[in-house]
Model the fold of this input.
Amino acid sequence: MFAVRRCQPELVAPAIPSTPHELKPPLSDIDDQEGLRFLVPMIQIYRNEPSMAEKDPAKVIRQALAKTLVFYHPFEGRLREEPDRKLMVDCAGDGALFIEAHVDITLDQIGDALQPPLTIPMLPRIYIV
Done:
């Protein structure tokens, strides 16, 4: 057993407020398949890097995400379904969802439990970045 403390979700906006506010054209038929319309819960875990000892890892990831969104702004967009069920990406510059979490256990203590298939019961609710 281990405890997870999840911080408040936040929106990370692009580092430079130059994101065009636009509604992208409808997704292609390849990207807009009915069978792809679901969320995939995931956990992203980053090992401790000794050279980063003086830095807050969540802050580093948050800043990198903000810089990335300048060039890949549709990643912070919201999917919108049109009346004909076609999906479009609405880019408003609101930002991408980021949730920081902390656990009271190390990866070494978990061992091989994180190998597929993951059987952690709270997986659908926890996103660790």
